[in-house]
Fold these 2 entries.
Entry 1:
Amino acid sequence: MQFTSLLFLTIFLPISIIIYYFIPKKYINIYLIFISIIFYLCYGIKYFTILAFETILTYIISNLIYKNKKNKVKKKIYLLIYILVNISILLFIKINITYKIYNNELFLSMPIGMSFYIFTCLSYIIDVYKNKIYEKKILKLILYIVFFPKIIMGPIVRYNDIKKYIKNNNRKKDNLIDGFYRFCMGLCKKVLIANYLSSLTNNVFNINNISNISPLLTLYACISYTIQLYYDFSGYSDMAIGLSRIFGFNIKENFNNPLVATSAKDFWNRWHISLTSWFKEYVYIPLGGSKKNRFITIRNILIVWFLTGIWHGVSYSYLLWAFMWAFILIIEKNFINLDKLSKIKKILYSIFIHIYIVLTFSLFATNSMQVNKILFNKLISMFNINNIYIDNDFILWFKNTYFIFFIGIVLIILNSINFKLSKKHKLIIDNIKFIIILIFTIIAFSSIINNNFSSFLYNKF
């Protein structure tokens, strides 16, 4: 049951909200667990069994670690067992999806949200091990793990960040209004921009089509896919944050205008923030971060990005994507002093980074080294001016998508500008934005009714 499905929008969500705002406060956590389980069960009982196992295992291991908090050897053993079990399950399924080693339906596709909720649970167990947190009440821990707005595609939330909302869930009118606005914004991003651009990218990045497509259309499709991916994933994050707000939770942002980044480091401080901060907190810093010598720093970056690639999938495309980002981050960290660059050089470097972003994320679009080879050859061929031409296919696709393409770019630029307004003018602007979002939400809803539906790109991870 996707957030953009009619079943969710017309039945599940309205009923869930109405009951939430009328149910006695002491039953809120139980109720949120109940609707979260119903939501997840819509994806199938087979996937729910893995989630249930993960939840029970997390509760048992957290108790064992806490009870042995003064016994360093025992609690380390429990931690290592937990990490080994979780990483083994995750790796097995990701490897099996790619190489079809074990022909069982349960393991031939990624259990929905698994990469996200396993990292959620890992963060909790590691924090228990470090004596930062511990939740003895099982219902509160279950709610933290299964809370439906974030379970499918994040953001990856740490227990410390939401424990106050679990312990004291306040129903406020402002939460409902702000959450509804944020949810609608995400819905519009997904349905009106990401879904529309997918018609182009799905056709271009197809092994049967890409050989016959001009280099210019290939480039246009690569840029379109980057915009599509951003609006698809940030749209989901907006919906998740909005839904969480409606149900009394304030979840941290997962995107901060990443497509206006000026460097690779800046980009990853803005894109999928919860995953980036997870690897920084639980892998990069424990390995020593950048506080030791250059060799150790490079090693740590390579390890983090190898794991990031594996998190996305066990295929050469994802590993190449991860290596490309590790490479540019190592270069930036050790050989480029961005602060000392002239304004012109900073602008040129920013342009280079945007080209780099487009090239790396095109690997996500194909997930096939055969297609990637053709794609990169076409892009490289544009260095020969004779290969840059406008054909009928480019004109057709440009006519069909240019408006959405440029609207997507304009919105990215506008969101990056901080307007200094008085409270009165800010209120007027906010009201105008709310009306505009409502109008676009109606358009998005009509599009969903007309079966213009595609799943979220990050579902496959």
Note: The mean pLDDT is 89.
Entry 2:
Amino acid sequence: MSLKQEIFDKVVIHLLTQNARSTNETGGSCSYRSKDGKSCAVGCLIEDSEYSINMEDFTIRDPIMVAWGVSKFGKDDFEEIKPVLRFLQLIHDKIKVERWNGTLMQCANHFNLEKNVFQHFGDGIDPHPIRSITDFAGIIEIYGIYGK
């Protein structure tokens, strides 16, 4: 199994099991880790020993998070998985929780990943996660997620 697939599967299981955003105390901003024990799509990959409050408010493309990713996965592997991590981060931060199932499936399609992980969640997959594929393409364009 590729590292990209392994990470995707782990994050899907995490997000769909948690079924809630990880947010700061006011509920306004998404957080890698929240006080109530939740974590975001990337936060669930960060070990307790790796986590720092200084990571909050930064995306996977910012230097502090790039340093974490390179340290954890190695430079080449991190560069390969960074687009998937960014997309998963955006799903957590920008998509309504009730639309995560279908949007994660679209993410799998975009990055040519297997969707076997969804079998663990029964038939509750929303086939229309966002209004249209144009909206999905817009997310890719707006946030600069091009890698496959």
Note: The chain has one domain: 3-142.
